[in-house]
Amino acid sequence: PLNGAFSKCSYLLTLDLCNNRLNGNIPNWMGRLSQLRYLILANNNFEGEVPLRLCQLQKLRLLDLSHNNFSGQIPPCLDNTSLHREEGYYDLIPTYRNEYDIVSYNVGPSMGEKETIDFTTKERSYTYKGQPLESIHGLDLSCNKLIGEIPSRIGELIRIHTLNLSRNNLTGTIPVTFSNLRQVESLDLSYNNLTGKIPPRLVELNALAVFTVAHNNLSGKIPERIAQFATFDEDSYEGNPFLCGPPLPKICNENRSSTEASTHDNEEDDNLIDMDSFYITFTVSSVIVILGIIGVLWANPYWRHRWFYLVEILITSCYYFVVHNLIP
């Protein structure tokens, strides 16, 4: 487990412990690293829920918890972490890398020329340093065991460039608030259990270069192929049998379906009216016939005697049939 090796490093700016064999839960002291901007714990064996204490890291720009065993729901308060870089910060800031090795000391506000961070975005791993590192904002929770719905407040991370929630067990719909992510360049929601439609307003994300919702349970028409959405191919939507429209081969027949449904409903209504008329007519006719027979038997003694005689013969015949054929 990750012990308190950095618990007193209040000026820690970057904590990169990826590709180790660390396990256990994220410790409580991590929420006290008030200056932390880059937290990378990818490719370990951490477990438990993503702690709410990470929301206390108000200067956090990049959070990478991918390829672990985190469970539970996504904390809705992560929108507290996407804040601007403070100016005039000139304290000595130690930065740590893998295996707890001290790599360099950085003098803020600049990150320094030697400091580098590896982060996966646009389906490729990039190395960031210098000014590009200071401008990156990302959230990667992929390849865990997260459940529940995606908090709509994630759509308030308006400075985010990369959002990867793929390969979890997330349910519910894609939040409409994702249309606020105007700077997002990579949005990956694939391999979950998301349902409902893809919000049409996502076409407003003009910076989007990579988009995939493959292998979910989404349905309905794919957003209009305009702007960036015109560049996404079938791979971005595959594995959703109820999605339709370009670039998928399945054609949406909404008008036809509506017409057929209306026609079918009318046919059912007509059938119901015919059946009601039939039942009414049949009932009235039956009552008239029964009343007619009763009237004839009451007015004519001869037919009344014949009727009871026939009833007696029928009862006698049934009795002897049962005695001779059914009773051993």
TrEMBL record:
It is a single-pass membrane protein. The keyword Transmembrane helix applies. InterPro entries: Leu-rich_rpt (IPR001611), LRR_dom_sf (IPR032675), RLP_Defense_Trigger (IPR051502). It holds the Pfam family LRR_1. GO terms for cellular component: membrane. Keywords: Glycoprotein, Leucine-rich repeat, Membrane, Receptor, Repeat, Transmembrane, Transmembrane helix. It is found in: Membrane. The chain crosses the membrane at residues 278-300, 307-327. The keyword Ligase does not apply. Belongs to the RLP family. This is Leucine-rich repeat-containing N-terminal plant-type domain-containing protein.
